[in-house]
Amino acid sequence: MTMANDMTRPLDGISVLIIEDEFIIGMMLLSEIERAGAISVGPVTSVADALEKIKSGIADIAIVDSKLADGSAADLADALEHRGMRYVVVSGYEEANLPKGLKGAPFVPKPISVPLLIETIHRVTRRPAMPMSTGPLPPPARLYGDANGAERGLALEVDSAVCQVGSEDGRRA
């Protein structure tokens, strides 16, 4: 991708699931997302339809309106995270008033600023992907030992800090 292409098509090759219950807004998002180079999926207008698309793994990222035709998009947060699918929340509500399941996600207020939305999607999709989960994920672990290679304990990485379990002589601490 050239620098000029990156400026005019910042979402080139990214697939975006549009979850929006207002048809006109959904179609506007579809048009703008495609203009930015992305492949759009949807728009879908309900929690039920969105869950079906999320489970299919058809998109890299989702734009999620906080309130849908048949309920709150907070019901989608677990499914999105379980699939490892990133998402951006768009809402007419203030960010502080979002349902609990959507708080903390990247947020773009309505009325939607298309440049802000495109920039947010671009920023979010440039981070390493979240792992797809089929259940709780254990932290990375490795055995550590002494200079002779004798196992001395187990090291667990938690939030980039390493915690060692065991004592200097190899017995449990």
Structure in words:
This protein is α/β, with parallel strands linked by helices and 173 residues long. It has two domains: 3-125, Rossmann fold; 138-173, no CATH class. Helix content is 29%, strand content 27%. The protein contains five helices and ten strands; from the N terminus they run H-E-H-E-H-E-E-E-H-E-E-H-E-E-E. The chain has helices at residues 3-8, 23-35, 47-56, 74-83, 114-125; strands at residues 15-19, 39-44, 61-65, 67-68, 71-72, 86-91, 107-109, 141-145, 151-158, 161-165. The strands form three sheets. The chain has a five-stranded parallel β-sheet, sandwiched between helices. Helix 3 packs parallel to helix 4 (74-83). The protein is globular, with a radius of gyration of 21 Å.
How many angstroms separate the termini? 54 Å
Shape category: globular
Walk across the major sheet and give the strand order.
2-1-3-6-7
Total separate domains: 2
CATH superfamily of the largest domain: Response regulator
Uncertain residue segments: 1-5, 133-146, 149-173
CATH fold-level name of the largest domain: Rossmann fold
Short key terms for the protein model shown above:
single chain, 173 residues, alpha/beta, Rossmann fold, 2 domains, five-stranded parallel sheet, disordered C terminus
Provide a short characterization of the protein structure.
The protein is α/β, with parallel strands linked by helices and 173 residues long. It has two domains: 3-125, Response regulator (Rossmann fold, 3-Layer(aba) Sandwich); 138-173, no CATH class. The protein is 29% helix and 27% strand.
